[in-house]
Amino acid sequence: MADTCGQVLLGSGLTVLSHPLMYIKVLIQVGHEPLAPTLGRNLFGRQVYQLPGLFAYAKHIIKVDGKVGLFKGLGPRLCAGTIGTVVHSRVVQKCQEQGTAQVLGGQQKAVEGSLQHVVNETTKEMIARSCATIVTHPFHVITLRCMVQFIGRETKYSGVFDSIITVYREEGILGFFAGLIPRLLGDVLSLWICNLLAHLINTYAIDDSMSHTGEIKNCSQAVTGFFASMLTYPFVLVSNLMAVNNCGLAGGLPPYASVYPTWVDCWRHLSREGNMSRGNSLFFRKLPAGKMYAIDQKRFF
């Protein structure tokens, strides 16, 4: 229990610190570009038109809503983080108890570091993460919609409880799980890619006789985690877009945004436009080729 409380406190602190970054990232993901491109230079010194980066975007939000404006949607996100940590911890504990019972019942425990051990531990983590994601997704949806209100200057989603009532009244239970499927798929794929790649590197590329083997293995885990997140980023983008799509906010309705019947249609549309990585980078954002900036809607077409 003490470990869970510590994780909740640490997670809450990191959530508060990282919230402005997520806020800006979400607005970029939905295609909101309030500042016109500027002429700058790339890493090779060539002149190119660039979109505003993290700090320019943050200054714009502060100019419109003040510094407090950078923390829209923080309440439901903190709720999601707290509940998710508790659920994840409980499910992991149950999985470990079940694994111990199987060993006592006569089944042989997999050798630590073996492929079977990695598969077993990844399966437990996948179950725990999936349970936490499903339980907290309603708060994730509310968080995203609180953020996207910046585009149309709405106040439809103003608090956790009021937002819950609004979603249920307008969309029913299913409204709380908009964008859940691509989010789950992305989480599961990212976890398996990360752990299996790390196992392959640690087994076949790192010699146990090398000095600082532990630090090298930890580094390989971090590298594979970053690589996995890059590969599965389109699932994150599609999930966030579907969470706000056709929800009554300007940022999720025509003419600003298309209405997608399913997340597969959203994926296909983004793929055709070459926007599968939109919002993945917050720095050195080059103007998309063949796109025109519309002042009235503050987005590209």
From TrEMBL:
<dbReference type="GO" id="GO:0001889">
    <property type="term" value="P:liver development"/>
</dbReference>
<keyword id="KW-0496">Mitochondrion</keyword>
<comment type="similarity">
    <text>Belongs to the mitochondrial carrier (TC 2.A.29) family.</text>
</comment>
<keyword id="KW-0812">Transmembrane</keyword>
<keyword id="KW-1000">Mitochondrion outer membrane</keyword>
<protein>
    <submittedName>
        <fullName>Mitochondrial carrier homolog 2</fullName>
    </submittedName>
</protein>
<dbReference type="GO" id="GO:0060612">
    <property type="term" value="P:adipose tissue development"/>
</dbReference>
<dbReference type="GO" id="GO:0005741">
    <property type="term" value="C:mitochondrial outer membrane"/>
</dbReference>
<keyword id="KW-0677">Repeat</keyword>
<dbReference type="InterPro" id="IPR018108">
    <property type="entry name" value="MCP_transmembrane"/>
</dbReference>
<dbReference type="Pfam" id="PF00153">
    <property type="entry name" value="Mito_carr"/>
</dbReference>
<dbReference type="GO" id="GO:0045444">
    <property type="term" value="P:fat cell differentiation"/>
</dbReference>
<keyword id="KW-1133">Transmembrane helix</keyword>
<dbReference type="GO" id="GO:0048565">
    <property type="term" value="P:digestive tract development"/>
</dbReference>
<dbReference type="GO" id="GO:0043065">
    <property type="term" value="P:positive regulation of apoptotic process"/>
</dbReference>
<feature type="repeat" description="Solcar">
    <location>
        <begin position="116"/>
        <end position="204"/>
    </location>
</feature>
<keyword id="KW-0472">Membrane</keyword>
<dbReference type="InterPro" id="IPR023395">
    <property type="entry name" value="MCP_dom_sf"/>
</dbReference>
<keyword id="KW-0813">Transport</keyword>
